[in-house]
Amino acid sequence: MLEKIDLTKALDKDTYKRIMPSLEERLYTVQKKSWDAGIPVVILFEGWDAAGKGTSIQALTGPLDPRGFKLYPIRAARTYEKNHPWLWRFWLKLPARGEWAIFDRSWCGRVLVERVENITPEEEWQLGYRDIVDFERTIADDGHLIIKFFLHISKKEQKKRFEKLLKDPLTAWHVAPEDWEHHRRYDDWLIAYEELFERTETEWGPWTIVEATDRRHTRVKIYETIIRALEGRLGISSEPVLIEQPDPVPVVQAAAEPAVDDGQVEPVEEKKRRKTASGKPGVKKGSKQVHHA
User: pTM for the whole thing?
Assistant: First the structure.
């Protein structure tokens, strides 16, 4: 499936600047309305290393009211967390009514990193698919709106981004030796991602594949997906995003005012200008005086 994704999709800078203010306003609006309606929202981000999950989340949360969401960067389970069922730590992070919970990586790691790096025995991570579907079905039945993103880039683009990060001392720390190992095993990860989509794509927890080569396109697609999902839940009609600039409205020149005939009521300006010798307005020489009701 991923090999069929068009990774050349991009958005020019002018269009991006034109449509983003409207998207930001709509995003804030649906956040406020979901709070008022008591809808708990779960948004999770998965994707390749250096695909832009962190920067996308930063762009997403910028227009939001910080009191209405929580962000959870997910790492390996801690010692005390391993003493509980593996999904226990995610149950604790579910949002309250009206709140948003944003996950930078998620419970899908059970069938991704734990699978590819042989952290978990195969018989256990194979059961993970069923656990994930059941978990998401349970919280969806409880009223949670689930939005799942996967940020997709090519192996060539990933290497390009790693090298760019390493050139800057302030960003070089983002690239660890394990990231290069993941890059080397790109095809192994590709298989794991494909099976993840196949076995956890559901009506209540659909995946949105985001073409993440161009950052502007990435952000707009994420915004649009969240806005449309919430507008659908709230019963608000979705407005299309105008990528193409609409034709300008033609300017119609006003016609000149017709001349005023004798004996007709004249405009106020004309009345002031025309005065008879007697000083009474509204009367022209040689014409009958007009009496107003």
Answer: 0.81
